[in-house]
Design a protein that fits this description.
With 212 residues, the chain is mostly helical. The protein is built from 8 helices and no strands. The two termini are 44 Å apart.
């Protein structure tokens, strides 16, 4: 007697059985897509929005303080000593040297911010952040928060420049300052755009490799 094979037919409705559809239609190597969905849902959550707002405000305060120190030191140095101290007093030369350093503090701090931002996006930087928060923090979320911080710095520096420019009677034309801020904001947007574009290309490459 031949063995009898019994098959059971299961009705599959793609509009209702989302779990079954995902098991059948989704490839197994699309982890990045699911991570992207988690990141997008996380970005839209109220807690992350509050974090972005706090980061922007912190960036505004940082940029404002940096520019006030730098421009204030430069203005004080010009009003007190001009191009060079006119006396041989050691105290005057010491103060002049300190003021000269403070006029360049914005460049130093901006370089340090960029270095810290780059180090944070590395594998070790992400591992350190995940260890600190004891959670699977997404790389894109950290990148977006960093860009928001840069946007805040640009806005804070713009506010400081505008206030000092108005106080001094507009010795510097306002249009170049506004144009520089506009270019900086466009660069911040392009950072996010290029990051997402690179992630999409990497996902497409994985799909092509899986199919072939």
């Amino acid at each position: 007697m031949l063995p009898l094979s019994v098959f059971t037919a299961i009705e599959f409705n793609p509009d209702e059985d989302d779990d079954v559809r995902s098991m059948i239609t989704q490839p197994l190597l699309r982890d990045e897509v699911s991570m992207g969905d988690e990141e997008s849902s996380t970005t839209k959550s109220p807690s992350v929005k509050a974090s972005c707002t706090a980061i922007v405000l912190f960036g505004i305060a940082t940029g404002f303080l940096i520019q006030v120190i730098s421009l204030g030191a430069y203005a004080f140095m010009l009003t007190q000593y001009g191009e060079m101290p006119k006396t041989d007093s050691e105290s005057d030369w010491f103060v002049y040297g300190i003021l000269s350093v403070l006029t360049q503090v914005d460049l130093v701090i901006y370089v340090l911010i960029w270095v810290a931002f780059t180090c944070t996006m590395t594998r070790n930087g992400m591992a350190f952040i995940r260890l600190q928060y004891q959670a699977q923090v997404q790389r894109r979320s950290v990148f977006i928060l960093g860009v928001y911080f840069l946007v805040g710095i640009v806005l804070g520096a713009f506010v400081a420049w505008t206030m000092i420019d108005v106080y001094l009677g507009f010795p510097i034309p306002f249009v170049p300052i506004a144009a520089t801020v506009g270019v900086d904001l466009v660069l911040c947007y392009l950072m996010v755009f290029c990051y997402d574009l690179g992630r999409e290309e990497s996902i497409d490459d994985e799909d092509t490799t899986a199919c072939c």
